[in-house]
């Protein structure tokens, strides 16, 4: 807190005072117009004055004009676009004031009477005033149009931010819809099994109910959140597999391998469950002797690789299932919505038999 407080007063002044910074930039840019006007007066109008004298007069008049017009704009309307009519009134008042005071200042700097400066410019008054007004209009139009363009850019950025917010809301709704498709049927299947066990094997039904409660506790936070950690996701899968093990008995065994350094990584919630559920339902459960399911995580550079592997009936049984296709499609749509082409899901055969689902997520 002390460091943050002490850093504020040392912030550079131009950034703490954006209007003064803008005015300083505008004054500096005006000198280009001043130099151009002095060259035109000297070599085109060919008035009876040197280039140095014309540059001094042009700088004095032009700088005061910008201070009056642009300074007034920044003082009254800040960095935004000013209303046209009040701005034109400022312009009409500033032009003669800048010319009169600029001549006085130039005369003082050059050591000549201001009347002499006015007399020199009176040698060709029509051409001089045309050049003077064109310069004033050009400088004013430049700064006015720049403020207008800045306002258009600000409005475009605001519209872009609104569109991004709407897109994020739509994305969140899509993710919640896809996630909601994963949860209900597993719960219904478990309750149906529990209903059947109550009549024929009450102790086993009690164990299944205990595991179901443990699973629901584990999934309560993950199922409704925007994200979770890999450790929480593995804990959820352990509770789910414990529930399935009560149902399948010795026909199901499982191993979970999560390196400690990967445990805190953030991952989308409920990402592994449809893959684990498909592996059991279409790979291990239909197999008479059952089998083993393995879940592991590893890091490959800046990519997190998650594998769900079983030694069940094989990839053909997985691919033939409509449920598997729906679960895989949902996962791929979630990954596409969250990470685009940087994430993906692949299904591969496992040798000598079984199937492996491989998830790749950017870290």
Give a description of the structure.
By secondary structure, the chain is of the alpha+beta class. The protein has two domains: 2-172, no CATH class; 181-362, Heat Shock Protein 90. Helices cover 69% and strands 12% of the residues. The protein contains 13 helices and seven strands. The strands form two sheets. Strands 2-4-5-7-6 form a five-stranded mixed sheet, with helices on one face. Strand 6 and strand 7 (355-362) form a beta hairpin.
Mind summarizing the main beta sheet? 5 strands, mixed
In the CATH scheme, what's the topology name of the largest domain?
Heat Shock Protein 90
Radius of gyration from CA coordinates:
38 Å
Shape: rod-shaped
Please count the helical segments. Answer: 13
Q: Numbering strands along the chain, what is their spatial order in the largest sheet?
A: 2-4-5-7-6
Give the topology string: H per helix, E per strand. HHHHHHHHHEHEEHEEHHEE
Overall pLDDT metric: 77
CATH architectural group of the largest domain: 2-Layer Sandwich
Q: Alpha-carbon distance between the termini?
A: 31 Å
What percent of the residues sit in helical stretches (DSSP H or I)? 55-70%
Short précis:
The protein has 13 helices and seven strands. It is α+β, with helices and mostly antiparallel strands and 363 residues long.
């Amino acid at each position: 807190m002390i460091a943050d407080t002490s850093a504020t007063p040392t912030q550079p002044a131009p950034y703490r005072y954006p209007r003064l910074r803008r005015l300083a930039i505008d004054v500096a840019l005006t000198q280009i117009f001043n130099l151009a006007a002095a060259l035109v007066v000297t070599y085109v109008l060919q008035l009876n004055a040197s280039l140095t004298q014309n540059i001094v007069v042009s700088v004095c008049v032009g700088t005061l004009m910008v201070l009056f017009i642009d300074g007034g704009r920044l003082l009254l309307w800040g960095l935004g676009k000013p209303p046209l009519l009040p701005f034109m009134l400022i312009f009409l008042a500033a032009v003669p004031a800048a010319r009169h005071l600029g001549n006085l200042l130039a005369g003082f700097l050059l050591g000549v009477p201001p009347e002499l400066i006015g007399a020199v410019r009176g040698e060709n008054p029509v051409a001089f005033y045309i050049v003077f007004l064109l310069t004033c209009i050009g400088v004013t139009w430049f700064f006015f149009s720049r403020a207008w363009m800045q306002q258009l850019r600000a409005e475009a950025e605001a519209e872009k931010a609104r569109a991004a917010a709407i897109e994020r809301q739509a994305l969140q709704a899509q993710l919640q819809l896809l996630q909601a498709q994963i949860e209900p049927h597993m719960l219904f299947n478990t309750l149906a099994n529990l209903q059947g066990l109550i009549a024929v094997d009450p102790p086993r039904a009690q164990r299944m109910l205990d595991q179901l409660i443990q699973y629901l506790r584990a999934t309560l936070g993950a199922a409704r959140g925007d994200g979770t950690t890999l450790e929480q996701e593995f804990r959820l899968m352990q509770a789910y597999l414990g529930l399935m093990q009560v149902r399948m008995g010795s026909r199901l065994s499982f191993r979970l391998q999560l390196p400690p350094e990967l445990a805190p990584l953030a991952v989308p919630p409920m990402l592994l469950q449809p893959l684990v559920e498909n592996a059991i339902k279409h790979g291990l459960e239909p197999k008479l002797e059952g089998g083993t399911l393995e879940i592991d995580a590893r890091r490959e550079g800046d990519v997190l690789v998650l594998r769900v592997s079983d030694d069940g009936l094989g990839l053909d049984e997985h691919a033939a299932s409509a449920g598997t296709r729906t679960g895989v499609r949902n996962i791929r749509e979630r990954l596409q919505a969250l990470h685009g082409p940087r994430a993906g899901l692949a299904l591969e055969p496992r040798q000598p038999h079984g199937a492996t689902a491989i998830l790749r997520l950017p870290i």
